[in-house]
Design goal:
This protein is mainly β. It has one domain (54-194): Sandwich (Immunoglobulin-like), CATH 2.60.40. The chain has 1 helix and 11 strands, in the order αβββββββββββ. The strands form 2 sheets. It has a 6-stranded antiparallel beta sheet, with no helix packed on it. Strand 10 and strand 11 (188-194) form a beta hairpin. The chain is globular.
Length: 200
């Protein structure tokens, strides 16, 4: 084969080879943006990661009423390994809740100290008993055994009195801090701040 003919053959082979190259790979389509998590309003978890749980979060309670007359007592256990006792008494002002009725509406009680959620109890409507104008919840065996014993009383002027007593570990060392209290009945919620007023 003459050099000129070899050059022509090489050129043709190169052109043919170009036609058989695989097409360039396309870049993968960008992943769709992740949707921000939403706060679930009755599971005692910070679902959206903003540091606020359930009805402390404006997603669940955008306009809370102000609690009145809140008192909180924290009593340390007899031994370091024991749970501490808390006793909460507070009042939701008249008009803040529309026909509050724990027989129909679930109740949520929440306690927070700074960035720490120290107590959250969601009490289903099926667990309440009524005597006069007072609704009572007593913890039972099973998943309700660690919930606080709670009384809810609808006062003649429409205000709602709430009293709760429960046990939690590590509360006594927080007794000198300011606590945030949140109460929810049905679609109504109220919050306030207090410092423990004393210890038993």
């Amino acid at each position: 084969m003459t050099p000129r003919r070899a050059l022509v053959v090489f050129a043709v082979a190169a052109v043919v080879g170009c036609h058989h190259r695989p097409p360039p790979a396309h870049a993968p389509a960008p992943a769709p943006p992740r949707q921000p998590a939403r706060e679930v309003c009755d599971n005692c978890l910070d679902d959206d990661g903003d540091g606020r749980v359930d009805f402390e979060d404006s997603d669940c309670c955008p306009h809370p009423a102000a609690l009145e007359g809140t008192t909180l007592i924290v009593a340390p256990g007899e031994h370091p390994e024991d749970s501490d006792l808390f006793t909460l008494t507070t009042r939701v002002p008249a008009g803040a809740f529309t026909e509050p009725n724990p027989y129909v509406d679930d109740v949520t009680l929440q306690l927070r100290v700074g960035q720490r959620e120290v107590g959250c109890a969601a009490i289903g409507h099926q667990f309440w008993r009524k005597t006069g104008q007072t609704y009572r919840f007593h913890p039972h065996a099973g998943h309700t055994r660690d919930l606080p014993e709670t009384f809810v009383r609808v006062l003649p002027n429409g205000a709602v009195a709430v009293h709760a007593t429960g046990m939690r570990k590590g509360l006594a060392r927080l007794a000198d801090a300011e606590w945030e209290v949140t109460v929810r009945i049905g679609d109504g919620c109220a919050s306030g701040r207090t410092r423990p007023s004393g210890r038993h």
